[in-house]
């Protein structure tokens, strides 16, 4: 375990329980669970960022793609929910992030999927895909195939160059 993971573990231990995950797909979904419904249709192993403070905090131990909805405030302010902010405060969760997939609603115009776009920009990783609400069957297929290609060694080598 790296020193930062150890520090995170000690930190997290001081504030509550933690759960380590080897999942290549990590997502957030609120109680309305649109995003969860989409992730279920992917039929892939995925870890969910906790909604409630009483749940163990999730810490990634391998490279992963983050799939998240936007909950925008006024003019896109506070569009990243506190649970995702908390998750990204862990060094390991930022270090292992390789790409972001955004869920949203085009009714929000220029703020469509703004949370995913902002995280990608801040963490210097690509926005891999965006979709509305629980996604169409075409979105499910695109993300399924896209992630399979994304995790092939050839594709990973190209990104490291
Ligand atoms: C209060 C509220 C604010 C939202 N703000 C945005 C927004 O700024 N941009 C966007 O693309 N979608 C926005 N959405 C749409 C959600 O991202 C969308 O409903 C998503 O599927 C919710 O996922 P979940 O049910 O898994 O939490 C908003 C939805 C709600 C209820």
UniProtKB/TrEMBL annotation:
InterPro entries per UniProt: Flavoprotein-like_sf, RNR_Ib_NrdI_bac, RNR_NrdI
Q: Gene3D superfamilies attached here?
A: 3.40.50.360
GO molecular-function terms, A-Z: FMN binding
Top-level taxon of origin: Bacteria
NCBIfam families, per the entry: nrdI (TIGR00333)
Q: Cross-referenced PANTHER family, in alphabetical order?
A: PROTEIN NRDI
What is the similarity comment for this entry?
Belongs to the NrdI family.
Briefly, what is this protein's role?
Probably involved in ribonucleotide reductase function.
Q: What is this protein called?
A: Protein NrdI
Question: Organism, per UniProt?
Answer: Glutamicibacter ectropisis
Q: Which gene encodes it?
A: nrdI
């Amino acid at each position: 375990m790296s020193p930062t993971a150890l520090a995170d573990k000690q930190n997290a231990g001081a504030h509550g329980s933690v759960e380590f995950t080897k999942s290549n797909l990590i997502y957030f979904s609120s109680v309305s669970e649109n995003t969860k419904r989409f992730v279920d249709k992917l039929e892939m192993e995925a870890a969910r960022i906790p909604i409630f403070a009483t749940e163990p905090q999730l810490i990634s131990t391998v490279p992963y793609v983050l799939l998240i909805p936007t909950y925008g405030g006024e003019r896109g302010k506070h569009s990243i929910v506190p649970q995702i902010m908390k998750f990204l405060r862990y060094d390991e969760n930022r270090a292992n992030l390789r790409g972001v997939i955004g869920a949203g609603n085009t009714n929000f115009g220029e703020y469509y999927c703004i949370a995913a776009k902002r995280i990608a920009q801040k963490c210097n990783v690509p926005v891999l895909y965006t979709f509305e609400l629980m996604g169409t069957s075409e979105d499910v297929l695109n993300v399924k195939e896209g992630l399979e290609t994304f995790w092939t060694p050839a594709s990973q080598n190209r990104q490291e160059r």
